[in-house]
Amino acid sequence: MADExxxxxxxxxxxxxxxxxxxxxxxxxxxxxxxxxxxxxxxxxxxxxxxxxxxxxxxxxxxxxxxxxEPQAQSQPKKxxxxxxxxERPKKTRVKRPAPTGERKPISREPKPEHDxxxxxxxxxxxxxxxxxxxxxxxxxxxxxxxxxKKVIRRSAKFHAHDEANTAKxxxxxxxxxxxxxxxxxxxRLAEIVEAAK
Length: 198
What we know:
Helix content is about 35%, strand content about 25%. The protein is of the alpha+beta class. It has 2 domains: about 10-75, no CATH class; about 120-195, CATH 2.40.50.140. The protein has a 5-stranded mixed beta barrel with strand order 1-2-3-5-4. α1 crosses α2. The radius of gyration is 56 Å and the shape is elongated.
């Protein structure tokens, strides 16, 4: 029990000391400001102020390098060029061209040459069907040699051609010409009947 009382007393003493130190420090700081005319207490205040100045000197030391660092930082970066307002800018003078002495020549345009639109393909074939209205089916046979093996190859293709007057009949040899799309499958039209069917 005696040990417990001692620990309690020891624990209480630092708390008391802390409060006394805390109370004395503000009192010391306030006393020089309030009691300036008293000459007897000035040496006491001066003796205690160095202790108070030491902690204050630590924050003051970093503050001093900051002040010179700012002008150095400002001198290092280049100043940004700020454009003056339009009224204060120097006015540029445009070079004046001399007025033309003679009369202007009129723009001459050459007439467009008259020719067929593009190069239209032509095919010759035999009419296979004329059942549809204004449309004939023409079978075109192609005979050509194979580019590498030189064998003669016969191919045939069927084209739907437009026949406005329904003149072509089955078996006629006709010439068809490429034209604009007239329907989904019709891109050709009847140019002429070369040979009528027998």
